[in-house]
Amino acid sequence: MRDLFIRGGLVVGPTDVAPSHVRIVDGVIAAVGPELSPASNDYVIEADGCWVGPGFIDLHTHLREPGKEAAENIDSGANAAALGGYSAVVAMPNTEPALDSVAMVTYVLERGASARVDVAVAGAITVGRRGEQLAPLAKLASLGVTLFTDDGTGVQNAGVMRRAMTYAAQLGVTLAQHCEDETLAAGGVMNEGRVSSELGLVGRPAIAEEVMVARDIDLVRLTGCPVHFLHLSTARSLALVRAAQREGLPVTAEIAPHHFTLDETACRDFDPEFKVHPPLRHASDVAALREALRAGEIDAVATDHAPHTPESKDLAFDEAPPGMLGLQHAASLTLDVVGTDSPVQFFDVLSRGPARIAQLRAEDSRPRHSAHGGAMQPGDDANVVVFDPSMTYLVDRHHLASRAKNTPYHGRTLRGSARATIVRGVVVQEGGELC
Ligand code: NCD
């Protein structure tokens, strides 16, 4: 492993920024400061005009392995992550079979160990994600699993969720909920509202999400279990979470770039690239999400990177599977809202917040993974991104690392790009090329 020298960037700490060089030796940040110079053998990364901060962490990545490798596998998903500036991703358990057993979780952790970025695993809450019988949460926690979710579907039965929370609270792990009440959402293919009526499509109403957020907040109050709300999409959901946080309850929330950049009117052309669960919402919800992100009220931006093959996605709107790619463009879309004058907040939602939620920080000392979301101080594991906030690029679905092509941003020009991604002291991506 070659030692690294990151020259001339703006180092983004947890509370402030400083023009500094960063020296990385043996996979660890060895020195940070304005007066350093590289050793003769150091590999130098030029960071002029760039932000240098902890690598991004995606709390919500569908790697599709095992079961749907035609759409993505662990390596291709990790490559997309590296290009997007991520040093770690959390693999969602809605694979086939689901990640609900020691064997399946171990399989993904072992395959992930040779991927370009760190791969943490979210275990399923219930066997087969069927919402009935609890998965072996304690055994999975002993493998280092800290997040559990039936994502793709929410745990519908309040009694099952309460039981899961009671166990999870004792194990020191977090339950991550996909909030959609199926009795309200089933059959819907886009947001319920005037646009769905115009298009003659069945809607998934905002209330389907909000009743589950409200229910789970009540269960958190009862059980004390930490709950993380996945891909929240409505103004009211965010207001419920904010109120619960003010009350001191252990709840956190993520929002996904598509929910704060696109609204329901994108479905007008019946293009399945814009179909996703929860659906793209009303413009007023999009505005509320953007405002909350700008105001520093969001714990994490997570991609909900959901690859689908062209054959499966290119169907009539009602029949196509929901979900869209996210890893390669999430940081640019986040920057567009947070703004170039708020680098601390940018790293809060893309790295430090997610690291806290997934317990990937040094102080969490979980087995298997290096530490992420650090303060950019000597002694930190060198999981670092060099991010150029001014570089613009054109999104081309034919030039993505993912096996799937289903991005709704094809043809758009975005700003802000990861110039280099460093994982455990190794440069895994530089200048848009995988290393
Ligand atoms: C996700 C998928 O395809 O796995 N789809 C989606 O529309 N978001 C599942 C999920 O995260 O809900």
Please estimate the helix content.
25-40%
CATH class descriptor of the largest domain? Alpha Beta
First and last CA, distance? 13 Å
CATH fold label of the largest domain: TIM Barrel
CATH superfamily of the largest domain: Metal-dependent hydrolases
Q: How many whole angstroms does the radius of gyration measure?
A: 20 Å
Mean pLDDT: 97
Uncertain regions spanning at least 5 consecutive residues? none
Shape: globular
Largest sheet: 9 strands, mixed
Total number of domains: 2
CATH architecture of the largest domain: Alpha-Beta Barrel
Number of extended strands: 19
Kindly name the structural category: alpha/beta
The distinct ligands, each listed once, are: N-carbamoyl-L-aspartate
Q: Helical element count?
A: 13
Portion of residues in beta strands equals: 15-25%
Overview of the molecule:
Helices cover 29% and strands 23% of the residues. The protein has helices at 74-84, 102-112, 137-142, 158-171, 182-185, 194-199, 206-223, 235-246, 257-261, 283-294, 310-313, 330-338, 343-357, and strands at residues 4-12, 17-25, 28-33, 43-46, 51-54, 56-61, 86-91, 118-123, 147-148, 174-177, 190-191, 203-204, 227-229, 251-255, 300-301, 384-394, 413-423, 426-430, 433-434. Helix 4 crosses helix 7, helix 7 (206-223) packs parallel to helix 8 and helix 12 packs across helix 13. The longest helix has 18 residues, at 206-223. It starts with a strand and ends with a strand. The mean pLDDT is 97. N-carbamoyl-L-aspartate binds at residues 62, 94, 151-152, 178, 276-277, 304, 306, 322-323. The site of N-carbamoyl-L-aspartate has 11 residues, from loops.
